[in-house]
Hints:
globular; alpha+beta; 4 helices; single chain
Amino acid sequence: MDLVMMRGKDAVCDSLEVAEHFGKRHDKLIFEIERKYTGLIGKGCAQNGGDPFFMKSTYIHEQNGKRYPKYYMNRNGFTLLVMGFTGKEAIAWKMKYIEAFNKMEY
C-alpha cells in the first residue's frame, strides 16, 4: 500500500486512498474538495507558488467499468483536506501520511 507516490516530480496521494483510509465516501470527499478548494484545483494557483494543491483526474471503477473523477493532492492539499478529520484513527492515518510524504519527498 503506497500512501504517497511520485507523479512527475511531485509527491502526491489520491482521493480514493484518502477516502478509504479515513472511512469517507469518495463521492462526498470529491464534493468537499470541489466545494471548499475550487481555487486550488488545477494549474497556476497563486496560493501555492503557482502549483496546484489538487489535480483532477479520473479512474475506471472495477465493478461497472465507468469513469469517475478523483483528485491527486500534494502535501498542502492533503493537509488542508484532512485538517478537520477527527478521532484516534484519523490521527493515526494523518501521521502515516505525513511520514509517507516525508519519505517520498526525501
